[in-house]
Fold:
Amino acid sequence: DSGVTQTPKHLITATGQRVTLRCSPRSGDLSVYWYQQSLDQGLQFLIQYYNGEERAKGNILERFSAQQFPDLHSELNLSSLELGDSALYFCASSVTGTPGTQYFGPGTRLLVL
Amino acid sequence: AQSVTQLDSHVSVSEGTPVLLRCNYSSSYSPSLFWYVQHPNKGLQLLLKYTSAATLVKGINGFEAEFKKSETSFHLTKPSAHMSDAAEYFCVVSDRAGGSQGNLIFGKGTKLSVKP
Structure:
């Protein structure tokens, strides 16, 4: 158990809908990262927050957004969902924002029908 | 820009035989390199990391990796495979380009199968 929690574990929704994925980092970790894992694209970095502020952006679509709250939990919002958004979404956390060990949550599996 | 290439998408070994998972990297900086493992229906777990200290890095569960700058490689090895090693393994480089502060760049993954 990494100490990173993600909810929900599974999510089934329809095209055009909006969903919110939630992540609680390990106690004491200030940095949260979001990744998408799909069969065709593999594991891709989406976005990073550090102590409430956006730190880095990867291959995140404009339809997706994220935020980190004062208690350091983070939410990833996915809107206008398409079939191709079906994937496993991982959250990871680390103590600082600099290169180092990241601890991954169990993921949220999103299925868009 | 940093990148990693995992040379094999699938490796199959017999229990008790050595494991070699190959990874080449490309980096303009002195890289930080990692191996992560993902068991079926589980999140990712860090096996080991290289951050410019010793070139031979020992990780959990008997795995180790050697950083070879001249070959731009970071291959993962284990002397004797166990059935519980069956999983997908990811070679990872930490992205430092463009002011980025530590997000990870993953290889495509190598699926390790272990036969009894």
